[in-house]
Amino acid sequence: MSVTSSDSPAASELAVSPPRRRRKLQAWEWAPYLFISPFFILFLVFGLFPLLFSMWLAFQTWDPSTGLQGMEWVGIENFKFVLEDDWFQKSLYNTFWIAIVSGLPQHLVAIPLAYFAHTYLRKHRNTVVGVYFLPFITSTVAIALVWNSLFSRDYGVINMALTSIGNLSIAGMHPLAWLFPTSNVDWAQPQYTKWMISSLVFWRYVGWNTVLYLSALQTIPRDLYEAATIDGATSRQQFWHITVPLLRPMMFFAVTLTIIGNLQLFEEPFIITGGTGGINQAGKTAAMHMYNTAFVDSDFGTASAVAWILFLIIGLMTWANNKFFAQKD
Amino acid sequence: MATLHLRNIEKTYESGPQVIKGINLDVADGEFMVFVGPSGCGKSTLLRMIAGLEDITGGDLLIDGKRANDVQPSERGIAMVFQSYALYPHMSVGENMGFALKLAGKPKAEVDVAVGRAAEILQITHLLDRKPKALSGGQRQRVAIGRAIVRKPKVFLFDEPLSNLDAALRVQMRIELSKLHEELGTTMIYVTHDQVEAMTLGTRIAVFNHGVIEQVGRPLDLYQEPANQFVGGFLGSPKMNFIQCAVTERRADSIALKVGCASGFELPRSVAADAGSALTLGVRPEHLELTRAGDGIAARVDLLEHLGDSTIVYAAIDGADQIVTIKTQGGRTALRAGEAIGLRPQAGACHLFRPDGRAIAAQA
Q1: What is the mean pLDDT of residues B140-148?
Q2: Average pLDDT over residues B237-245
Q3: Chain B residues close to A230, C-beta within 8 Å
Q4: Is there a single domain that holds both residue A240 and residue A281?
Q5: Comparing C-alpha atoms, which of B9, B81, B12, B16 is closest to residue B46?
Q6: Is the pLDDT of residue A3 over 60?
Q7: Are residues A211 and A243 in the same domain?
Q8: Is residue B75 part of a domain?
Q9: Which terminus of chain B, N or C, has less C-beta within 10 A?
Q10: Which residue of B has its CA nearest to A242?
Q11: CATH number of the domain bearing residue B212
């Protein structure tokens, strides 16, 4: 016996059923997507697209003035060029130099300072910490201008203070002349540029780190210090045996922020050196080099390669930092 | 082991109230003294003053006869177990326990022996390499006690150490603490707000209220002969009933009281109270007997709580606008809410308090 499809009840039902109307979406169904869309649109336009585009650019040679058709695939040539480039190597050296000289003291000062504020300052703690925090929220331009004034060769307060000490006369002798300058120092000279930038970065971020460590200190239960007191620990022993180990997670976080921030250092050296990097490029950081390559030399391909190399270095340093501060369980 | 003497101990915070108001107390060698009282009564503050964690603003603290007011906490010969355990989270159990000896510069071998011995006493040898976060509440508690034992203190101080444990573990740890005291024989001072812990652990109890000691004595003495209404109400669960009453007649060897609507309730003892004076009758829930309606103090059942082994009856006294608690043995009862009942206090177990709260002692 043969059965045709037209004999089946389902098929006959389909044949007579009216055409289905497309269901109209209700407002409550599409409204959530509408409300959340601004974030995704902004992220795609200003976040994801530039990221992917810079990665694509890193393998191209491109001058934006030639338009998109001016792009030319060069493979890893940009990376090879950057890694062999003396100026990039110098800027990277400057970046690390400033990162270490300004970054390390930030934490070495911030931790004891936060401990002191937490332990000994009661009523005035917030005021003191607020004063330390002030540089962090002050305009970089204003700070850099003040710094330039302070370090001015002829009118700067720093020179005035140092030469006053250097020229201090006792019985016709200058006993401190061997340690302090007796005439004005030209701080714009290359041997001083990185010190100047580092002192500014240190001064600006030590308050920020103090606030971070202070917040971490406030989470350490007072009971632990009391138990340590009964166990016979002095204040110094409590600091080393209780405070420092329990600050490790915050140290990891704060040092990671310092690594990221210092390896991307741009504003302070840019303003202090007038965007040139200073004499002999002594104050030019990798971020400045990237900026100059892109917006001065119009070489966006090489600048993108610099950006990605910098990203890899930051990633590597953060990984190493994580290894160093990781909790041993 | 050591004795402890507190002489007019006071604590006044700067620009604050006086929280400890002239405490006098002697703790004998090897005694298990419990400080008990409601929150904010000053018991923990006093313990911390003994430990050296709070300054003593008045009076003298003598440990083994020597004034210790200005002695450093680590040199007072005390060890303290905190409510939060206060274990160093980054150190292993062994390191936690040996920290004090390490700070004191003891050789590692000596520290290991002391830690091992304490761990054996508390049966935590297998936990020595673990970090505190890998321990249960009870194990942390043992480690905290172990840390105290390692220091071989003259006086152990416990600041509500069982508060963070669940009910079952609390009972178990209570027993273990009692055994530990028997084994070590060291003077111990234990702070708690839990009157069951106080009754079961203490050789003696000091009941605190608003910075003063209301009464000191052996647990059963305090339970049976409270010096005042506060102590009577604080010790015992459910708490003692306080019923307003008036003296109707004073005889040579008894006193007649009017309680609620019922007059002629007779206490067979001689009490120094004049006829007509208003007093407070204190009766513990287990000393109130249920009788049929019309017999004794007239009341009406308000609520029943079945605890399994016993039943708690809440009843409203007719004419007194007051709820009293009765504890009856046995889990089942035929009583129903709203039912009229009679209450008969066990005359020998009743207490009388003056309007100022002081207990009226029976005259010989």
Answers
A1: 93
A2: 91
A3: 51-53, 73-74, 78-80, 100
A4: yes
A5: B9
A6: no
A7: yes
A8: yes
A9: C
A10: B88
A11: 3.40.50.300
The pair of structure tokens assigned to A140 is: 């970089």
User: Which residues in chain B are closer than 8 Å to A226, comparing Cβ atoms?
Assistant: 53, 80, 82, 86
What mean pLDDT comes out for the span A82-109? 95
Contact criterion met (CB < 8 Å) for A229 and B52: yes
* Residue A246 lies inside a defined structural domain of this protein: yes
Same domain, B133 and B267: no
Tell me: the pLDDT tens digits for B56-78?
A: 999 999 999 999 999 999 999 99
pLDDT at B80: 94
Residues in chain B, overall count = 364
Which chain B residue lies closest to A246 (C-alpha atoms)?
B90
Which residues of chain B lie closer than 8 angstroms to A246, CB-CB? 89-90
Better pLDDT: A120 or A58: A58
Residues B95, B173: one domain?
yes
User: Do the chains contact at B88 and A224, CB–CB below 8 Å?
Assistant: yes
| Residue B238: cis peptide before it, omega within 30 degrees of 0 | yes
ipTM of the complex: 0.86
Where residue A212 sits, what CATH number does that domain have? 1.10.3720.10
Residue B362 has pLDDT above 70, yes or no: no
Q: Is B202 helix (H, G, I), strand (E, B) or coil?
A: coil
Average pLDDT over residues A185-196: 90
Question: What Å distances lie between residue B129 and B6, B118, B144, CA to CA?
Answer: 40, 15, 15
Q: Is B289 helix (H, G, I), strand (E, B) or coil?
A: strand
Q: Which domain holds residue A251?
A: 77-151+192-325
- Assigned token pair, A99: 């990162």
CB contact under 8 A, B99 and A242: no
Name which of B89, B90, B104 is nearest A232 (Cβ-Cβ).
Answer: B104
Domain assignment present for residue B17? The answer is: yes
Model confidence at A8: pLDDT above 60: no
Instruction: Please compute the mean of the pLDDT values over residues A31-45 and round it to a whole number.
Output: 95
For residue B11, the distance in angstroms to the closest alpha carbon of chain A comes to 19
Q: Name every residue whose Cβ is closer than 8 Å to that of residue B107 and which is 6 or more positions away in sequence.
A: none
Whether residue A70 has pLDDT greater than 70: yes
Predicted confidence band of residue A148 (pLDDT cuts 50, 70, 90): confident
A positions 202-221 inside 8 Å of B (CB): 221
Structural tokens at position A105: 């003291």
Q: Which residues of B touch A (CB under 8 A)?
A: 51-53, 73-75, 78-80, 82, 84, 86, 88-90, 99-100, 103-104, 131, 147, 151
Residue A182 contacts residue A167 (beta carbons within 8 Å): yes
DSSP 8-state code for residue B361: P
Q: Are residues A119 and A252 in the same domain?
A: yes
Give the minimum alpha-carbon distance from B235 to chain A in angstroms, rounded to a whole number. Answer: 30
Q: What is the pLDDT of residues B74-93, one digit of tens each?
A: 999 999 999 999 999 999 99
Residues A127 and A220 reside in one and the same domain: yes
- Is A325 in contact with A248 (CB distance < 8 Å)? yes
Give chain A positions within 8 Å (CB) of B75: 232
The pLDDT, as a whole number, for residue A10 is 47
State the average pLDDT over residues B158-187.
89
Mutation site, B75, B81, B82, interface A, largest A CB count within 10 A:
B82
Output DSSP code: residue A287. H
A329 contacts in chain B (CB < 8 Å): 131
Structure-model confidence comparison of residues B311 and A12, the more confident one: B311
